[in-house]
Amino acid sequence: MKIQSLFTDLIRKSTVTGATGGLGSQLTRAILESGGDVISIDRDEIPPAATWEPLQALAKSLSRTLTYHACNVTSPSQLTSVFETAAAQVPFPLRGLVNCAGVGTVGDSVEYPEDQTKWTLDVNLAGSLYVAQAAAKVVRKQAGGFGASFVFVASMSGYISNKATPTAIYSASKAGVHQLTRSLAGEWGSPSSPSPAIRVNSISPGVIHTPMTKEVLTHKEWTTVWEQEAMLKRISAPEEYRGAVVFLLADASSYVTGTDLRVDGGSTGW
């Protein structure tokens, strides 16, 4: 198989949740540039123009299809409806999913509020399951028995205790994503008629410069620790995760499942 085919066959149509965020928009851009159509899902009824308009322009220039759908990832019924509707509007079977929707929270665990705890776990962990369920239902209903590749965005915090900041609940939610990845990969990896095989993997980013982390990164005492803990001695940019996700979506990784790819500048490698 040609190298170009390895990186386009499974990317043909993918869904990205959290698609207008700092990381999600870069991953959407990467899929479009790799020859795929993208179903974008995010929480806002109207996508932010500063992010969405450049993506629309890119899709048009590449003759790719890009659609947007507002959805709450903590609502299984809403996700099922949105995925079914969205998949029917875009040509080619759904072959990929990138679940980038997530929240980052910081706080003293002794006084950490109940509503924040539930919100973090609902979005980061339960939301990952709900998104995967909705996507898997679409994949199983499609004619032709095409397989698919799902990618969750976890975190290096699922492996380590953050030295700079108290993030117990956030870290626990991302560790849960690691286990969810392995468990779903085990359940969905064996093709059995009429169900096609679905590969499930995750990536674990380090600290990223995004609008969501802007306030946290104003704390110099925290950023100094993160920079020193990374073997590359710096904080990452969203575009540095494009290659990892495209690889996991594509046929180039056809024998990779149940795996977490750490893209953390070496922070967990010491």
TrEMBL record:
Keyword field contains Translocase? no
Q: Work out whether the entry's keyword set contains rRNA-binding.
A: no
Q: Keywords on this record? A: NADP, Oxidoreductase
Origin: domain of life: Eukaryota
- InterPro entries, per this entry? NAD(P)-bd_dom_sf (IPR036291), Sc_DH/Rdtase_CS (IPR020904), SDR_fam (IPR002347)
Q: Name one GO molecular function term.
A: oxidoreductase activity, acting on the CH-OH group of donors, NAD or NADP as acceptor
| Entry's family note | Belongs to the short-chain dehydrogenases/reductases (SDR) family.
Q: What is this protein called?
A: Uncharacterized protein
What organism does the UniProt record list as the source?
A: Hypocrea atroviridis (strain ATCC 20476 / IMI 206040) (Trichoderma atroviride)
